[in-house]
Amino acid sequence: DSILRTMKLQTDADSLSAELQAITGADIRLIAAGKGIFDVRVNGRLIYSKYQTGRFPKPGEVTALLKPQT
Asked: Does 61 or 68 have the greater pLDDT score?
């Protein structure tokens, strides 16, 4: 069960990485930190934190946070 959960999280992280790269054209790197931590930072600024929300981001959620606010 733990192996399947880890594989699902890796798949979700890979999907988010591809989504961000497609939208921003930026070089996206996944950095393993352990302990279930999943943070998204842009230019050093925290955009999304799994620790703060208690969950992995939904598809499109992080990219929506990156769009300029109008």
From this structure: 61
